[in-house]
Automatic annotation (TrEMBL):
Organism domain of life: Bacteria
A biological-process GO annotation: methylation
Record keyword Oxidoreductase present: no
One GO MF term: methyltransferase activity
Pfam families registered for this protein in UniProt: AHSA1
UniProt entry keywords in alphabetical sequence: Methyltransferase, Transferase
Name under which the protein is recorded: Vanillate O-demethylase oxidoreductase VanB
SUPFAM superfamilies: Bet v1-like (SSF55961)
Activator of Hsp90 ATPase homologue 1/2-like C-terminal domain sequence ranges: 17-151
Naturally occurring in which organism (per UniProt): Silvibacterium dinghuense
Family as reported in the entry's similarity comment: Belongs to the AHA1 family.
Transferase is among the record's keywords: yes
Entry-linked Gene3D superfamilies: 3.30.530.20
Length: 155
């Protein structure tokens, strides 16, 4: 796994020992995504639509998942926007500019190279920017391991 971090961008790359089509399914089938990401999504991902659900990560089960699917290019690119580290249910984050999460897939010699990028942290309000960045940087490190384990266990 490789990491690239700047003040407004997190990027994680991993080589997965799985065909690109398999990794694609794990990313874009809402039930499979929910299994490794630990979120119970209400419906399939649809470009331009809001994706909602409940987190299933232990300790975070009370939190809603809300993201807007931006683009789905079969077996190569999937993106959504969301409000990073928006954990306080009493706060309305809807007026904040969301960050962009992008998943890029490429064939590699061992299977599939997956790159996850989250950008736009410069638009997160200053009072929560550093914490959101730190938490999401750590979160993507974990999530990249989760998808790796998921595709290995579900070929």
């Amino acid at each position: 796994m490789t990491n690239s971090v700047t003040s407004d961008r997190i990027e994680k790359t991993i080589e997965l020992r799985a065909p690109q089509s398999r990794v694609w399914q794990a990313l874009t089938d809402h039930e499979q995504f929910g299994t490794w990401f630990r979120v119970k999504l209400d419906a399939p991902f649809v470009p331009g639509e809001t994706s909602t659900g409940l987190m299933t990560w232990p300790g975070y089960e009370h939190l809603r998942w809300t993201a807007v699917v931006q683009e789905i290019l079969p077996e190569s690119y999937f993106s959504f926007t969301w409000h990073p580290y928006a954990l306080d249910p009493s706060v309305d984050y809807s007026e904040e500019i969301p960050t962009l999460v992008e998943f890029r897939l490429e064939p590699s010699t061992t299977g599939t190279r997956l790159t996850v990028t989250e950008s736009g942290f410069e638009n997160v309000p200053a009072h929560r920017r550093a914490e959101a960045f730190l938490r999401n940087n750590n979160g993507w490190s974990q999530q990249i391991k989760n998808i790796e384990a998921y595709v290995a266990a579900h070929p």
